[in-house]
Amino acid sequence: MRLPCPLCGDRDRREFYYQGHALMLERPLRDAGDAAWDNYLHNRDNPAGETRDLWHHEAGCGAWIVVTRNTVTHEVLDAILVEKARV
Amino acid sequence: MGYSGFKIIKEGLFGQKGWKPVWRNPEPKPEYDVIIIGGGGHGLSTAYYLAKEHGITNVAVLEKGYLGGGNIGRNTTIVRANYFLPGNSEFYSHSLKLWEGMEQDLNYNTMMSQRGVLNLFHSDGQRDEFVRRGNAMINQGDDAILLSSEGVREQVPFIDFENTRFPIYGGLLHKRGGTARHDAVAWGYARGADQRGVDLIQNCEVTAIDIESGVVKGVQTSRGPIRAKKVAIVVAGRSSQVAAMAGIRLPIESHVLQAFVSEGVKPLLNNVVSFGMGHFYISQSDKGGLVFGGDLDFYASYAARGNLPMAEHVMDAAMTLMPAIGKARVLRSWGGIMDMSPDGSPIIDKTDTDGLFLNCGWCYGGFKAVPASGFAYAHLIAKKMPHKTAAKFRLDRFATGQDLLDEEGTGSQHNLH
Ligand SMILES: Cc1cc2nc3c(=O)[nH]c(=O)nc-3n(C[C@H](O)[C@H](O)[C@H](O)COP(=O)(O)OP(=O)(O)OC[C@H]3O[C@@H](n4cnc5c(N)ncnc54)[C@H](O)[C@@H]3O)c2cc1C
Ligand SMILES: [Zn+2]
After folding, report:
1. How far is residue B148's CA from residue B32's CA, in Å, rounded to a whole number?
2. DSSP code of B354?
3. Residue A16, domain extent
């Protein structure tokens, strides 16, 4: 699998660290309550199909990116910088 | 039909014509006492123990594909009871005892082979950790022997003892561990359940779970609706999809784990051997193939095949530990979808819906759990109370942070196990 880093172009999967689902970007407020934190830390939609997840171009430019890809076919559809995904 | 040595000789003399299908292929009935979703190892053992231990036989196992086509037929067949944490320790200890009696109990040859599991260590710190684990195993009533480097040499003379980066300091030998034939385990439990009246229904995918005012009523399937008083989910890598049918969002992420097998070679390995540096473990099948594997591919995936980086990592580790196998050709590789929980331990629990039960989170270690998981799940379904060996496998431990079962001590977080 190769991931299209928006800054470096197509790179081997080995250059990236996998963090998990992109919901990690939406950290709840400190007093949001146990359920919100449980959902953030543990519970996942875990889709069989299209998903968005967070990768770190660790052995490359160091950018955090949000990759849209298919978990069944391993097809990579899109990758954007985290700062663009956040808006 | 019972199996015996006499029967095999007789069939050999008469052209093998007397063997019959081992289970029926029934049409689903309109209603059951219990529906089990998923005909993998855990679903089939659950059905068996529901019938055998609790006399509940009006049961259907609904399997979307064929029996044994999931992870139960894809794993590397290692059975062991070398867990450390209370909660896991008593559960796997119970499981190993059930493995030891399984063939007699099922009257089925599951090729259970207690050839020993040998975990190697490569530093003083790792030795201390293994001593601690070994003592925990002995305290639990299981077996563990600490071997020196010389002791390891007697077991596996051909590994690379001269490796300067990862010297072999010794190993922890768990003699009662070993391997079993994975398909046979599924078939043995299937046959035992069928003989006791359980309907095993293949090509029957559950597409919805019917719930009315907080009580489960049955399921919708590709073969029509089926009503049930109790519904038990046990679908391994597909747990999130099936739980979502009941509105449950699980602490599960599905990942792919690969395995590899080489061409057959002469007897070389007596035990299961694991490398303590880099994730690699290996055993030899009775046909002579070397069966080996490593870590997850480490990103969420539902593809039952892996990617090259982990394949290469596993081969690297193999060559580091056992250069002798370098010329053996790899025949096949494959992948299975693992239901990974945040702390790396399973869940066997009730849900908020009355009559709906959940069994998942087996990660890459659910084969050894097949007997005890079925045993405990059957108990939970029959009595609505957890069995004492599985009382800590609670779903709410992540929300509360209480009694997390983080065996590796890496943290209760998705990408760490
Ligand atoms: C490569 C590999 C190596 C492994 N090695 C080991 C090992 O050495 N030791 C060990 O202890 N464990 C090992 N494991 C883990 C072990 O195989 C699994 O944890 C265990 O088999 C999972 O439970 P199961 O057998 O019930 O799963 P499965 O056999 O996957 O059963 C689940 C079943 O549910 C069915 N299903 C899913 N959705 C639906 C639906 N909607 N309706 C109806 N049916 C449905 C599926 O078709 C499937 O048959 C390994 C796994 C893999 C992939
Ligand atoms: Zn980059």
Report:
1. 56
2. B
3. 2-85
ipTM attached to this prediction: 0.96
The encoded tokens of residue B231 equal 């519904």
Tell me which long-range contacts A73-79 makes (C-beta under 8 A, separation of at least 24).
A73/B303, A74/A1, A74/B301, A74/B303, A74/B307, A76/A1, A76/A2, A76/A3, A76/A4, A77/A50, A78/A4, A79/A3, A79/A4, A79/A5, A79/A6, A79/A55
Interface test with A, best of B64, B299, B358 (most A CBs within 10 A): B299
> Ligand 1: which of B71, B174, B223, B274 to mutate, most ligand atoms within 8 Å of CB?
B71
Which CATH number belongs to the domain containing residue A60 in this structure?
A: 3.30.2270.10
Question: Strand, helix or coil at B44?
Answer: helix
Put simply, whether A38 touches B (Cβ < 8 Å) is: yes
CA distance B318 to chain A (A): 19
Give B272-315 pLDDT, tens digit per residue: 999 988 789 999 999 999 999 999 999 999 998 889 999 999 99
pLDDT on residue B1: 66
Q: What's the number of domains chain A is made of?
A: 1
State pLDDT tens for residues B44-81: 999 999 999 999 999 999 999 999 999 999 999 999 99
Distance from residue B416's CA to the centre of ligand 2 (Å) = 23
Task: Enumerate the residues of chain B whose CB falls inside 8 A of the CB of residue A19.
Answer: 415
Spans in chain A with pLDDT lower than 70: 87
Q: For the segment B348-388, what is each residue's pLDDT rounded down to a tens digit? A: 999 999 999 999 999 999 999 999 999 999 999 999 999 99
Report pLDDT for B2: 83
pTM: 0.97
